Amino acid sequence: MKTTRTYTQSGRANGKVATRARILAAAKELFLEKAFEDVTLASIAKASGVSHQTVLNHFESKAGVVLGVTELFAAQANDTRYAARPGDVEGAVHALVDDYEDMGDANVRWATSADRLPELSAQMDVARAGHRAWLAAMFDTELPTDPAWREQLLDALHAATDVYTWKLLRRDLRRSRAETEKTMADLVVGVLRGIAP
């Protein structure tokens, strides 16, 4: 009897994990396709094939779903970005643009909405910090040791590689991916070589 109860509890736990993963996967796809405000708990429930209450049971609110989805976004971004070799400007920019081609439009929509939505604002701060940490990891050997100068260069690198820079080139100016990567790589090289202490 004890063994049967253990298997039943284990099966329920596995079912909860699978349901949570299904909800997050559906929410991620919705957030990639639609404006943040247009994704509702009801639409997430429908897309994941569960009830509205089930979504609430797992995440308590839309903010809870957002937290889970941003963790998925961050893991995917890290897998893509950190595949680049530190010090390789073209490789780093290529990896970054890979990430932006998948999630850049959603990033821009979220960043635009963050001023109005506190649950998004905190997540965007985390994303910016993650981007800055990636820049420091990729270009550490090129960065100065002086803290103030290092911060100045990181600010410039951030501007050169920000998702809004990608959006300007790819969406607003309609540049090809290759042209976008070249321009962003040129900006990074300019920052690394052009700022004097």
Using the coordinates above, name the CATH class of the largest domain. Mainly Alpha
Overall CATH architecture of the largest domain: Orthogonal Bundle
Mean pLDDT: 90
Q: End-to-end span in angstroms?
A: 74 Å
Q: What is the succession of H and E elements?
A: HHHHHHHHH
Question: What is the CATH topology descriptor of the largest domain?
Answer: Tetracycline Repressor, domain 2
Question: Unreliable segments (pLDDT under 50, ≥5 consecutive)?
Answer: none
Q: Which overall shape is indicated by the principal axes computed on the Cα atoms?
A: elongated
Contiguous helical run count: 9
- Helix/strand-derived category reads mainly alpha
How many structural domains are formed by the residues? Answer: 2
Number of strands: 0
Question: Main beta sheet, described?
Answer: none
- What is the alpha-carbon Rg in Å? 20 Å
Measured as a percent range, the helix fraction is over 70%
β-sheet strand percentage: under 5%
Description:
- This protein has 197 residues and is mainly alpha-helical.
- The protein is built from nine helices and no strands.
List keywords for this structure.
single chain, 197 residues, mainly alpha, Arc Repressor Mutant, subunit A, Tetracycline Repressor, domain 2, 2 domains, 9 helices, 81% helix, elongated, HTH_TetR, HTH tetR-type domain-containing protein, HTH-type_TetR-like_transc_reg, transcription cis-regulatory region binding, transcription regulation
